[in-house]
Write a structure and sequence with these properties.
mainly alpha, 97% helix, rod-shaped
């Protein structure tokens, strides 16, 4: 084997070794990227769940207080109407 053939063989061997080493690194990176994406999705779902819970709680409270207020106003107006009728009948 002459020098040129040896250099070409060595370059080819180095190139093949580098590509074999690089493939697992890319695969590992892709695997980690998928894991990170999964964790980000999980966290986003948790955040959304917490926001829904908070909003639902606020809306339920507001509905309760509004219904209570409306009921009290209606009772007050009913009482006033009954008093008017009572005054007119006397």
């Amino acid at each position: 084997m002459n020098l040129r053939t040896r250099v070409m063989a060595a370059a080819l061997a180095v190139g093949m070794t580098a590509s074999v080493v690089a493939i697992p690194a890319v695969a590992q990176s892709a695997k980690q990227d998928m894991k990170d994406a999964g964790q980000d999705t999980k966290q986003a779902a948790k955040d959304t769940g917490h926001a829904v819970k908070k909003t639902t709680k606020k809306a339920a409270h507001k509905t309760k207080t509004t219904a209570k207020s409306t009921t009290h106003k209606a009772a007050k107006k009913t009482k006033q109407g009954a008093e008017k009728v009572e005054d007119k009948t006397q």
